[in-house]
Amino acid sequence: MTTYAPPVVAWHGDATPSAPLVVLLHGRGSDEADIVGLANHLPAGPAYAAVRAPIREGGGYAWFANRGIGRPTTESLAETMAWFRGWLDQVASYGRPVVPVGFSGGGAFAGGLVLDDPGRYSGAGILYATLPFDAGVPTTPGRLAGMPVFVAHGDADHVIPRDLLERTWTYLNGDAGSHTTAVRDPGGHGLSAGVVDALAEWLTRLFAAGDVST
């Protein structure tokens, strides 16, 4: 079992312990400083925590070791998810709404978290990412039944393999059973203003609905 250092976290927004918690998860080779600014474009009210991934890679950090782009190794994903849950349990007791929102590798990690333990989370944002298929987390029909999910893909994304993007899109709009808001962006592998606006609207609706308890 790999031992990781405690996470580095950049906070933004409401510091009240009972406020809904949106966890921002950066892409591979990046860090928390690159994604915490996204909170400036998202609704006021929640607490936002941008968490640094535990595995050093190049000039940044990664959420898991992989066997190819978008394909986490089972052992590594299990270890880093356990590390993340250890942190989460310290900052968010059960009953506090928690919504992981991740970009690219962080989106795959967010998908792994909710697939592994859907009852722990109140929703998820999967941005320009694949779900971690064939990596030890269930992707069975109905696994995310009733969960609000926001997914955004770029039609010109040449970073994430097309077969994984299509498999993710199909699953989240079908067999997952989730309440999915799906946005297609004509651009490539990068957050567009339109997707950020749509994400903000989705979060606003989610928290206004009053059904974000775990």
CATH superfamily: Alpha/Beta hydrolase fold, catalytic domain
- Return residue spans where pLDDT drops below 50 for at least 5 consecutive residues: none
Strand order of the largest sheet: 1-3-2-6-7-8-9
CATH architecture annotation: 3-Layer(aba) Sandwich
Number of helices: 5
Query: Pairing-aware structural class of the strands and helices?
Result: alpha/beta
Q: How do the helices and strands follow one another from N- to C-terminus?
A: EEHEEEHEHEEHEH
Strand content: 15-25%
Query: What helical percentage do the residues reach?
Result: 25-40%
**Rg, nearest Å:** 15 Å
C-alpha geometry: globular
Distance between the termini: 29 Å
Q: Look at the structure and give the mean pLDDT.
A: 95
Q: Which CATH C-level class is it?
A: Alpha Beta
**CATH level 3 topology:** Rossmann fold
Question: What's the short story on this structure?
Answer:
By secondary structure, the protein is α/β, with parallel strands linked by helices. The chain is 29% helix and 21% strand.
Describe this protein with a few key phrases.
7-stranded mixed sheet; 5 helices; 214 residues; single chain; two-stranded antiparallel ribbon; alpha/beta; 29% helix; Rossmann fold
Explained architecture:
This protein is globular. It has one domain: Alpha/Beta hydrolase fold, catalytic domain (Rossmann fold). The protein has 5 helices and 9 strands; from the N terminus they run ββαβββαβαββαβα. The model has no long low-confidence stretch (mean pLDDT 95). The chain is α/β, with parallel strands linked by helices and 214 residues long. A 7-stranded mixed beta sheet has the order 1-3-2-6-7-8-9, sandwiched between helices.
